[in-house]
Amino acid sequence: MPQSMQITAATIDPALLDLPWEIPLEEWPPEVLAALPRGLSRHIVRFVNLSERVIAVKEIGESVAYREYELLRDLVRLGAPCVQPTAVITGRTSRGGELLNSVLVTEHLSYSLPYRALFSQYMRPETATRLIDALAVLLVRLHLLGFYWGDVSLSNTLFRRDAGAFAAYLVDAETGELHTEGLTEGKRLYDIDVARTNIIGELMDLQAGALLEPTVDTIEVGDRIVSRYLELWEVLTAEESFSMGERWRVRSRIEKLNELGYDVGELTMSTDASGSHMSIQPKVVDAGHYHRQVMRLTGLDVQERQGQRMLNDLEAYRTITGRKEDPIELVAHSWLAEVFEPTILAVPAEMRRKLEPAEIFHEILEHRWYMSEARQHDVSMEAAVADYVSTVLPRHRDEQAYLGVGDTQEMEAIFGEEEPLPDDDAEFAALDEATAAEFEANPMGFTAGLRFKGE
Questions:
Q1: Distance between CA 157 and CA 422 in Å, rounded?
Q2: Model pTM?
Q3: What does the buried/exposed string (b/e) look like for 185-214 if buried means 16 or more CB atoms within 10 Å of the residue's CB?
Q4: Rg from Cα positions in the chain
Q5: Which fold has domain 112-237+425-452?
Q6: What are the pLDDT digits (tens) for 19-44?
Q7: 6-107 has which CATH code?
Q8: CA distances from 19 to 16, 57, 102 (A)
């Protein structure tokens, strides 16, 4: 370990000190690497085996590294879906005394996949739609927390399976800003437009590489991030007015948000001057409604849709066993011991790394349903597991630490690596009204003219 090197971390794994920090990251020996990422990247990124886990090491300028490290820590504290920062290492020098770039170290997100890996595996157009939907949910969650991303793209996102859909995680916060007072509308809309532009470019790149069918309209798929974002934002934040005789709509609004996976932390209610009408508007909404229920009842840490599926199965178990009157906490304990754990343990140990346990459970439930439909009678869980293990699971690759496609590249920035990020709050504030008006007139973004290029 070089004498001048400095490590900033909440907790330091001693094994971190044994890595060859005196060597440029691009030249690290294969024996310390978990995989060599492929593809162009603005920064050098390597995945490293460390104390029976995998970390991502990114070579980057010192000030940018510290800034991104603190941003990621703030996002983790706020419960945002993002990678976990581990350390910033500065003061690196080569054996010859040459100064080396600083590095940012983050935990590799287990069972996550870069978008290119999903397309290389499936090559189905609907995969793009599901990824866009997941990214829209992520962007809404980040904006609700007051986080402006600045470089929204599929490349800067990792995806985990979530009961047939995907859950998206922010993996790169270099251009981000956290505004505790909330985002201006201008910044929100600019983020959406950047997302649309980047996604269209990335999908066109997939088509050029024959990873996406040429018949797919990349402009239409890119437009989906705008429509999905606006739909979800409206449901979560819009004011709703109704007569005093329709107060049941308060409960209905809350239940609708719960169904979407959000808890309402704060709701404002007001009446008009006559007292005949009232208005409600959610002020604080927290994602993770089903996740928290499953965590409370079983201790399992699962994705949102996985949690919803597991709670549905728990309710079915509760009915079948005649325990509708028993406390749900007791029933959940029995369900965990009699249904979930035996199902997962029935999967050979060497195959359990392919998917998260909750995703395996979801797929087995799906497989059991299809088998029952095909045979026109109820198939036992044991039979479903056996058939799933022999016919379905082998087709999945090991996703616990899949690193086959190193897609952590970042879009080229117009400022230098060590230059301070522009303070554009005033500019955005001044342009808010104009931005909102332009966006309302053309909701598919300021670059929608791309559709007409060459015509």
A1: 23
A2: 0.76
A3: ebbbbbbbbbbbbbbbbbbbebeeeebbee
A4: 24
A5: Transferase(Phosphotransferase); domain 1 (1.10.510)
A6: 999 999 999 998 888 864 443 457 88
A7: 3.30.200
A8: 6, 11, 14
